[in-house]
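Q: What structure does this chain adopt?
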Amino acid sequence: MSWETIRSRLFRRKTHEEIQQDLEGRASHGLVRSLTLFDLTCFGIAAVIGAGIFSTIGSASFEGGPAISLLFVITAIACLFSALCYAEFASSVPVSGSAYTYAFVAFGELTAWMIGWNLLMEYAIGNSVLAFAWSGYFVNVLEGMQGWLGSIGLGFDIPEWLVQDYYSASRAPAEIAKLTAAGQEPSKELLNHVKAWESAPSWNGWRVILDLPALMINVFVTGLVIIGIQESKRVSNAMVVLKMAVIALVVLVGFFYIQPSNWHPFAPNGLEGVFKGIAAVFFAYIGFDAISTTAEECRDAQRDIPRATILTLILCTVIYIILAFTLTGMVSYKELNVSDPLAFVFGKVGVNSMVGIVSISAVIATTSVFLVFQLGQPRIFMSMARDGLLPKAFASIHPKYKTPAFSSIITAVMVALPTLFLNSQLVTDLASIGTLFAFMFVSAGVLVLEQQPLERSGFRVPKLPGEVILPVCFLCYCALLNRLPSSHHFWGDWFAQEGFHFDRIPYVIFLVVFAALSVASVRYRWSAIPVLGIVVNLYLIAGLGAANWIRFAAWCSLGLIVYGLYGYHNSVRRRVDAL
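A:
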């Protein structure tokens, strides 16, 4: 077989005609079309406003101080470029699959597979982070209720080995020893990990340590997702309304306890401190693309998905900024490195009645995020299976509930495994880099669509002069290099006492790609927004560090192996071409 034949198969694209034929063929036995603009916007808010507000915003504020509000703006702008590109694709290609399907249209099968493979890290692996967060808040609520439960004779102790992850507990004794040797006090969380390790029962030489609440929420939400989209949207909408009410209450009550002196200094750790929160802050935004996975269940996907995507991004950015200023105004940023910042600040100022409200709402809010992500991944599996890249069972629709039930169960298993063996920080970074990778290719895909002589109705990305904007942005970045953290610098000594500066390598790659895209924008007169989408997402990927690049490369390599062993040989389009 010649290389040209292999290349044509690997990069064979889906056409709009093929997509339309597939849609018409599934019209009578496919998914139920019931989602409106309101439902989609609620799904978007449900996905974005959750773990970020109730957990990761604390650690990000600790690193960046009040200036973390700037990072929310920067991240929102980065997401806006991608969101506009998603909106154009959703309007042009109104089918399930999100970035996977869009990549198939723009770049072909192999790229689509890699995007779909990496979306596993956004949805399935990312949902593990949400499971950890949900577990923490659920346990806090139970502990807060112990006094009341004890008064009616229902009090109980929660064993630590049932609410911790194995990875953190196994490492805790060594970390305690290291802190003790340095004369430092271990955190309460670390002491709980040690307690779990020491008190856990053993089975065949293995200590039994698992986060039971994280597994429980996984099973509950998966059951809801399988039952139907109608039930899922009703639950999601109700939780969003409740979540918005609680956030409004937090801001109103918190306003009376704000001390403006806490906002000074505004950026105590400089730009480096602000950008340390990139992974945490971006993880707070990555849910907006989940809207596009429900395209085949929308009444008018071409009109409503673009509107819902942009509405979600704008509303959630405003909410994040207001909450960031509220938190850092109520309590010094130095005290916010906690897992439950909203509950913590009200406990700190003595408003204990709000602590319980925030804790219960955190459980509900995190459930809503979990629900939307658990909806998204099965529909991507379904789209990949329809193309033959996964076994046919992943594309099966439940005859009664009209949902991809088998894919939903597999997603639940994939969410459960990281909660058993990893901790939240590892999976947060992996989920972020996988998502950014998909965003980058969706942005690049719009450039490809612009070169195709197709008549496309619906939303289009505003066309701005890239030949002017990109060179100006590149020169501004170069002018700011001296003021950016040392990891951005390609000059100077690459060796230090702690070793080689590996984290400079991603930024050098970014600089080279940025320069090349600026030149190409001038030469080919590209539109600015999709190119900026590529640039900003690559910059954020660079900020995740060399270690995560290595993990990401390993994950992609595994994906190529899976594709080579199964997807390439079973591709529907390869079989059609062979006839």
